[in-house]
Amino acid sequence: MYPFSTQNGKDFQNLLSVYLDAAFFPCLREQDFWQEGWRLENENPTDPNSPLVFKGVVFNEMKGAFSDNERVYAQHLQNKLYPDHTYSVVSGGEPLAIPDLTWEQLKQFHATHYHPSNARFFTYGDLPLEQHLKQIEEEALSKFERINPNTEVPPSHTGREDHVTCSPDALAPDPARQNTLCVSYLLGDITDTFEGFTLSLLSSLMISGPNSPFYKALIEPNIGTDFSSVVGYDGSTKEASFSIGLQGMAEEDTERVKQIISQTINDIIESGFEEERIDALLHKIEIQMKHQSTNFGLSLASYIASSWNHDGDPVELLQINDSVAKFKQTLKENPRFLQDKVKHYFKENTHRLTLSMSPDEVYLEKQAKAEEEKLQKKIHALSDSDKKDIYEKGLELLAAQSKTQDASCLPALKVSDIEPTIPVTPVQISTAVGVPVQYCEQPTNGLVYFRAMCSLNTLPEDLRLYVPLFCSVVTKMGCGGLDYRQQSQQMELRTGGMSVSTQVVPDSTQLDMYEQGVLLSSSCLERNLPHMFHLWSDIFNNPHFDEVERLRVLVMMSAQELANGISYSGHMYAMTRAGRHLTPAGDLNETLGGMEQVKFMKRVAELSDLSQVIRTLVRIKKHLLNPDNMRCAINTTPQKMSDTAAQLESFMKDVADNRKERKPVRSNIIEVNYQQTNQNMKPCQMKTFFQLPFPVHFISESIRTVPFSTTTTPGNHTYLVCVSSRCGLGEVGTVHPAGHR
Q: What is the C-alpha to C-alpha distance for residues 436 and 415, in angstroms, rounded to an integer?
């Protein structure tokens, strides 16, 4: 899928023209293949005596992708679950198979698959559809004859067990428990819309949240740290699948986990699901239909793409209300409808794969050896003339990379095509029991959105490392008269989700000023507004931090998630670390979301006694969940605004007692100059290296520049865009300049 978006009609036409040209009429020059795909080249392109090595953007990117153990497992699972066709190979390219690809093969693949006969077009927005269709026809479709791309995917048949290996994870919460096990079941054809809807809903009932059967059976006994990286319903392939398993488990628990999965399926068939859980899930679907996010159109395109590509009905997929109504009626007529599905697709289904994965201490050495053998095999087949040709091609590519490209063929916007002013969204500033509130009337489709920023300014330094953990668990431990299961159920029944996250916002005028806090976010249907604020009130007044075993489960899951994310988000971690010593905001970002936080959570996960952690969370609550350190924002329809303001006022009165727990040290939300908090901190140069078990490196250099509001910002931003598209692409996978993430 190749998506783009813009608010400008002329820009949309320009982008559509560029995308059509790039997709259907690319140059695909051999030199492009060398740079973007793979090539043999001297390590130093200007020295013919330097060793020959593999290079190429995609080659390096795929090596990076397979440094992630979760990606390795997910890829093996799909390849082995669907061993007969498209899904049996790596779509981005198996790193050691990429050097076998030829330029001619690439061109032939493009001619067959990047053809209108194998394409789908999706547009969303308020621009005239007729113009889009006319442009697509004139610039692309009219220039081709229909062909049969032969992309039909035949049914798969599997029923076996298999095992793969991966590299050990030095940051795993428990080094002795790094095994993964998953059972995957082949389901029906995704073009059956109602069956897919039912199975997706059934998957959520089985695995989502602390009230689900598999969460109770697999996560809470602390057999593993989290569900396997592939879990739940997957409707992206021709035949859907459902997967359930654990990661972060001991090898000796393999048979135990298999037995638990089998027994849990039997229990579901016997007992079914509580009606309240089904209602909560249908409520979630209702909110998803009403919630129009920034990427709403892209989400719709992604939702229908797989089924549509296999000749399913995209319109039927979007008629979700019809599927909900049919589901309710079917369940009413047959109360065991869902249990029958579980029996058919899971207990009696022989088309399944059980895949285990364990760490291998010499995994990376084996990978490096295989690559070296591949390299030497290709080098030994070269004549002296071939080597000379490789050297000369390397010089050609180096010269081409340094050459300024001709951009005159690209369409451009004129100043007259751009609106001279940016529409201003009107907001009303008020207070609720002394707390600043921003009200914004919007067509929210029957939803109310609530956000609150709670300052970190008064938080003692020794508590800062714990703030991300506090944010992660405060809405999941239980509150008021609800235990954590009841709280989760009420959140699903009454809200579109309640989350707490850290926020570090650099000042736009001064580099050494910033705002620090935690952001509370939630949404609900208009009818559930009192319930949403009641839940927040219970979280403010009486969060349950004393549930030790529940906290241990959440700590292990959080530590596992952070450890898993390093290879996937390596550039982000490198950039965060590189910016640490340049600004106070950069230093705090590293503390709250960088490698320092990853290592800290590993230490917390290794603790046998969490009593000190619990005491710390209680201290943080007294500082953060306090109206004196808070400001709020409300977005809803004009008709609902008055009632929402009254409900917010009532909520603020309910939590006002928290003000008595400590005396405010500073005013509401302020930006803090680093000289006021740490006289010794000055911007400085620092070089840092983290030794991690990956076959690729993530490198970042950060430079202290100027504040956002200066007159040079537009030029700086343009420069960063240029750097991101050109710098280093001859040697590395991807460039991510700071400020253009």
A: 39
Q: What is the pLDDT of residues 23-37, one digit of tens each?
A: 999 999 999 999 999
Under 8 Å between Cβ of 120 and 311: no
Distance CA 729, CA 56 (A): 8
Tokens of 313: 């009905």
Whether the Cβ atoms of residue 704 and residue 683 lie closer than 8 Å to each other: yes
Burial of 629 (0-12, 13-18, 19+ CB in 10 A): buried
If you write DSSP's letter for every residue of 315-357 in order, what string do you get?
HHHH-HHHHHHHHHHHHHH-TTHHHHHHIIIIIS---EEEEEE
146 within 8 A of 341, measured Cβ to Cβ: no
β-pairing, 514-525 vs 447-455, is antiparallel
Q: Is 671 helix (H, G, I), strand (E, B) or coil?
A: coil
β 630-636/435-441 pair status: parallel
Closest CA to 180 of 309, 387, 354: 354
Alpha carbon 524 to chain centroid distance? 23
The secondary structure of 185-219, three-state, reads EEEEECCCHHHHHHHHHHHHHHHCCCCCHHHHHHH
In order of their start, the domains of the chain are 9-67+86-151+383-402 (3.30.830.10), 160-359 (3.30.830.10), 436-641 (3.30.830.10), 705-741 (no CATH)
- The C-alpha atoms of residue 725 and residue 329 are separated, in whole angstroms, by 54
> Is 738 a residue whose pLDDT tops 70?
no
Helix (H) or strand (E) holding 688: none
Give the model's pLDDT for residue 666. Answer: 38
Rounded Cα–Cα distance for residues 191 and 317 (Å): 9
Distance of CA 115 to the CA centre of its chain: 30
Buried b (16+ CB within 10 A) or exposed e, 665-695: eeebbebbebeeeeeeeeeeeeeeebebbbb
Dist CA 366 CA 643 (whole Å): 65
> pLDDT tens digits, residue range 193-229?
999 999 999 999 999 999 999 999 999 999 999 999 9
Q: Quote the pTM value.
A: 0.88
Could you tell me if 42 and 394 are in contact, meaning their C-beta atoms sit under 8 angstroms apart?
Answer: yes
Contact call for residues 349 and 185 (beta carbons, < 8 A): yes
Helix (H, G, I), strand (E, B) or coil at 403: coil
With a CB cutoff of 8 Å and minimum separation 6, the contacts of 59 are 37, 38, 93, 95, 98, 99
Euclidean distance between CA atoms 509 and 708, whole angstroms? 6
CA torsion angle 628 629 635 639 (round to 10)? 0
pLDDT band at residue 373 using 50, 70 and 90 as cut-offs: very high
- What is the number of other CB atoms lying within 10 angstroms of the CB of residue 414? 7
Instruction: Tell me the pairing of strands 226-227 and 239-249.
Output: antiparallel
The answer to whether residues 173 and 606 touch, using CB atoms and an 8 Å cutoff, is: yes
Distance between CA 325 and CA 320 in Å, rounded? 9
84: how many CB neighbours lie within 10 A of its CB?
12
- Enter the tokens of residue 616: 């710390």
Alpha-carbon dihedral 475, 622, 654, 536, rounded to 10 degrees: -10
Contact 479, 535 (CB under 8 A): yes
Nearest of 435, 585, 597, 594 to residue 515 by alpha carbon? 585
Which amino acid, 103? W
| C-alpha–C-alpha distance, residues 577 and 589, integer Å | 9
Which of 544, 540, 488 is closest to 650 using CA atoms?
540
* Eight-state DSSP code of residue 425: P
